[in-house]
Amino acid sequence: MARKKRKVEEVNSSSTADIAFLLLIFFLLTTSMDTDKGLARRLPPPIPKDQKEQDVDIKKRNLLPILVNSQNQILAGSDFIEIGQLRERVKEFVLNANDDPHMPEKIEEDIPFFGKMMITKNHVISLMNDVGTEYQAYISVQNELVGAYNELRNDLSKSKFGKSFDQLGEEEQKAVMKVYPMKISEAEPKNYGGK
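Now predict its structure.
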């Protein structure tokens, strides 16, 4: 006797794409993704090809070298310091309140809203990292450097204008930034030893 083959009915798959699309949307909406936080930096414009490289001569007193080694230790000038001390060290260096001869030289400038002032216009914070420096240590150092400038600008804004730096008008902000220009020089990471 011949067996009769049963025909298997096909499953309707026309809505499968719709279901997959809905699942995709559901997972996209309910999943949190880590987002990288960047550093707000304005890069200098590219050097024209016909321009020759110039060495900038910086007086030793105007330079605060900061080195982060492969063990994430911070050397500011000639002293090892903790990350919590870095902000105050930078503020002290940029201010040079007592006109210390081992700190940045003060130059008289005529600044809008402030008149003639003695400022440390030529100071430079030179940041160098070891290739073994952890990324989080690098970011923490950057945050402290920028935080030092932000605090200096904010304090000056409050004493002169009675409001914080971010509440000032554009011209007032430019004047405050002229008093405390952010001068952070960053060298390419090198292997200073360690690992």
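The two ends are 82 Å apart (CA to CA).
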